[in-house]
Amino acid sequence: MPGISAVVPAAGVGSRMQTDCPKQYLSLAGKMLIQHTVERLLSHPAINTVIIAIGAKDTYFAQTGLSEHPNVRVVLGGATRATSVQAGLEAVTTQWVMVHDAARPCITHSDIDALITHAQSHDDGALLAAPVRDTMKRANAQGRVAYTVDRQALWHALTPQMFLTQTLKQALIQADDTVTDEASAVEAIGGQPVLVPASASNIKVTHPEDKWLAEFYLSQQEGKS
Ligand code: C5P
Predict the structure, then answer these.
(1) Is 70 within the bounds of a domain?
(2) What's the CATH code of the domain at 25?
(3) 10, 15, 30, 35 from 165: Cα distances, Å
(4) At 122, is the pLDDT very low, low, confident or very high (cuts 50, 70, 90)?
(5) Tens-digit pLDDT profile for residues 97-113
(6) Is residue 54 situated within a structural domain?
(7) Domain count of the fold of the chain
(8) If 0-12 CB within 10 Å is exposed, 13-18 middle and 19+ buried, where does residue 210 land?
(9) Model-level pTM?
(10) Is 114 a domain residue?
(11) Are strands 126-131 and 4-10 parallel, antiparallel or unpaired?
(12) What's the domain range around 76?
């Protein structure tokens, strides 16, 4: 099938947020966080289906109305991010797939464009990423500095990450369940995905204070993305 599918793992409980509901359902600029994220993906012309993996005990998703969208599919996620993504991949019928965190609502179409261009010119796929800005320290068991890590070649791995669907399926079958991104699984089978610089606004809402920053970026991006 032509076009690209997007899998959105949203079966996490978001314990770092210290909120009553999982972070993907926080209210942000008048909508739930996941609605912003999925709408950004659905409105991109190259993405024809968004597959959302939700938790078995999820009581919030129904309120988003997203399951009524003709280009949205909903699947049951797993106990880890990797198993949630695997469940989503079962519903993918396109040659290429991107995986995007539910908790990154400020993703822009221009970053998605750059990702698609790089991924499709490289069999191992690509991921959005940000060069490390701060000096990096490796801690010892006592919480003291063991040594300083050279930040020159260090990047933060963001999402979306895009791969040939078959490659990602194969990689996740062989991967350890604890992988925290899809590129790690592809790396583990010998792949070298391309790092694509992303805009600084592509934050993951992880801690309570991130909500305000995400709302600021969303308001700045209104009508532009
Ligand atoms: O916890 P973290 O921010 O790393 O989660 C990243 C993404 O993976 C979130 O969108 C979360 O909902 C999702 N996830 C999942 N299934 C799990 C755990 C996390 O879909 N079992």
Answers:
(1) yes
(2) 3.90.550.10
(3) 19, 30, 34, 24
(4) confident
(5) 999 999 999 999 999 99
(6) yes
(7) 1
(8) middle
(9) 0.95
(10) no
(11) unpaired
(12) 4-105+159-190+205-221
How many whole angstroms separate alpha carbon 205 and alpha carbon 17? 8
The residues facing 164 across adjacent strands are 96
Measured CA to CA, the distance from residue 165 to residue 212 in angstroms comes to 35
* Residue showing tokens 């068991």: 141
The ligand 1 atom nearest the CA atom of 13: 12
pLDDT digits over 20-31, tens only?
788 999 999 999
Q: Is the CB of 211 under 6 A from ligand 1?
A: no
- Ligand 1 contact, 75 CB (< 6 A): no
Tokens of 116: 């698609």
- Residue for token digits 């003291």? 144
Mean of the pLDDT values across residues 37-43?
Answer: 98
How remote is the CA of residue 9 from the centroid of ligand 1, in Å?
A: 6
Q: What is the pLDDT of residues 184-223, one digit of tens each?
A: 999 999 999 999 999 999 999 998 899 999 999 999 998 7
